[in-house]
Amino acid sequence: MTDLFRATGDAGAAAAGTHRPARPAPAGPPPDGGSAEVRQAVVGPALARHCAALLSPAERARAARTRPPARDSFTVARGLLRSVLGGRLGLHPARVPLAARCPACGGRDHGPVRLMADGTDWRLSVSHAGLLVAVAVDYAGHPVGVDVETAARTADTRLLEPRLFGPAQRRRLARLSPGERRTALLTAWTGAESYAKASGTPLGAALARIGATVDDDGRVAVARPDALGGWWVRAVPAGAPGHVASVTTRDGTRLRTD
Ligand SMILES: [Zn+2]
Question: Where are the annotated segments for Disordered (predicted)?
Answer without folding.
Answer: 1-37
